[in-house]
Amino acid sequence: GNPWGVSAGTRGDWTEKAEVKVLDEGEETPLLYWVGCAGTCDSRAQQTRDSMIDILNAAGVDYAVLGHAESCTGDPARRIGNEYLYQMIAEQNIETLKGHKIKKIMTQCPHCFNTLKNEYPDFGGDFDVVHHTELIDDLIGEGKLKFKRGAKEKVTFHDPCYLGRMNNKYDEPRNVIEHLPGAERVEMERSEERSFCCGAGGGRMFMEETIGTQINTERSREAIATGADTIAVGCPFCMTMMSDGVKNNGAEESVKVKDIAELVAEALVKKEPATAQTEATPTEQ
Asked: Is the pLDDT of residue 280 over 80?
């Protein structure tokens, strides 16, 4: 049920210690958080997942997850040419989603986003699908997230292919960065519709480069050249590739790679625990 080779039976174990609602059979929710294989199996992407949960809870969003009932969307299988496996996975997932009468889905992975939004309708799965940067942008616009004062840092955003060029989602992640206290957004020479792949698309996330310059090393060099303190990403594949690329360029001590959700969660004004005398409330700092 995932390209990481992790036991399917452990997929929902993380929910036991998280402040999330897991849908029981037949239960419904106004928003389903599709965590994805990376968010459940990859330790780095799990940090994005936990940050997103903090954001959703801070904003008072009514949402739930599938837990053990979630599976891979089938995107990696289709990209490497196993169409039969992809269709089996897609049909099973659509059956699960319809069983919960799901209408709206949020993903933290552009590959899940693209598959659920643009490819599942071919198999009868019509859902309103948003990427987590879109939802965060909406929550900020609605005034549901409050931020504390932040240190000055330059942030450059690397456009995921499956979010940007394939789905024309360029503004939302940049809007979020603009709202982060202390953040100064800088652009790479190749950005938005002219952006450059991290090197993980088309199933290559799970392959080794053996010819020429590694794509992630080249793309990370472009990001470092902006003078950014932080490279912001919106995709777990990009997270892995850009982090490795920064290391390949010897810049891991000076340049951080973080998901948009992590940057937002770090900037949130957290609610203080309530005491017996008074109920603590968040304030602008």
From this structure: no
